[in-house]
Amino acid sequence: MPLQNDFFLALMGLCFGSFLAALASRLPAGVPVTGRSHCPNCQAQLGFTELIPVLSFVLLRGRCKHCGARISPAYPTLELATAVIVPAFLHRYGMGAEGALNLIIAFHFVVLAGSDWLYGILPDRILASLSCFTLLLKLLSGHKAFWSGLAGGLLGFSFLYAVILLRPDAIGAGDVKMAGVVGLYMGASRVFPALGLSFVLAAAYALPLLALGKKKPHDVLPLGVFLSAGSLIVSLAQLPQLSAILLDLGG
């Protein structure tokens, strides 16, 4: 794709990201998806200049124009992430049915990451929708991909289920269900690289905060954010190269 096409796709990604961030903030709170955007603190309706992806957050310095309440950095982060995801996934999977389904699946991961970041919740309806689109992708990809996906789903679910049995306070039930869906998407050969990378990213986030005293060992970590990031990266990466990197990190 020419560079100008990538720029256009990135702009589209920013707009999609703004919508996905809105879904992530509304669905767990039970707010209708179709209503006007408003500040969750003072309920003031937001104007056009307050809804420009990323730019509005920068110009408003992360504060509501009406009440001064802090705006979560989740919103611009999700928008920027989607601006990268759209061209990257279309480069990786093309513009056909496979590309469209993979992009829709990636959008689900963005919503899950945002929901867990903002509320500490991984909504069942998003996980169910993600499972349906993933199964459709596997069916279109052939029987080998389908059975590999089922095996990956079982492996991912079982692995985190074992963790929750050993340490019930370590992760939530939503994380276990999400690991199953990650495995379904990744397949048997890529589920553990995806989970492994997710844990590496989670550790890279948590350990400096623990060292600085900004987090305590028993504080809840939004694992869904890192499961989403790890899955998206592995989906785009070449598996042999990624496996070598993870092995190097493991010593």
Characterization of the model:
It is found in: Cell membrane. This is Prepilin peptidase. With 251 residues, the protein is an all-alpha fold. It contains 10 helices and no strands. Helix 1 packs across helix 3, helix 3 (74-93) packs antiparallel against helix 4 and helix 8 (191-211) crosses helix 9 (223-236). The longest helix is centred in the first third of the chain and has 24 residues, at 3-26.
List the topology elements.
Layout: H1 3-26, H2 55-59, H3 74-93, H4 97-119, H5 124-141, H6 143-166, H7 173-186, H8 191-211, H9 223-236, H10 239-249
The shape is globular
The stretches of 5 or more residues where confidence is low (pLDDT under 50) are 239-243
* Radius of gyration, in angstroms, nearest whole number: 19 Å
**Share of helical residues:** 55-70%
Structural class: mainly alpha
Order of helices and strands: HHHHHHHHHH
Task: Offer a concise description of the structure.
This protein has 251 residues and is mostly helical.
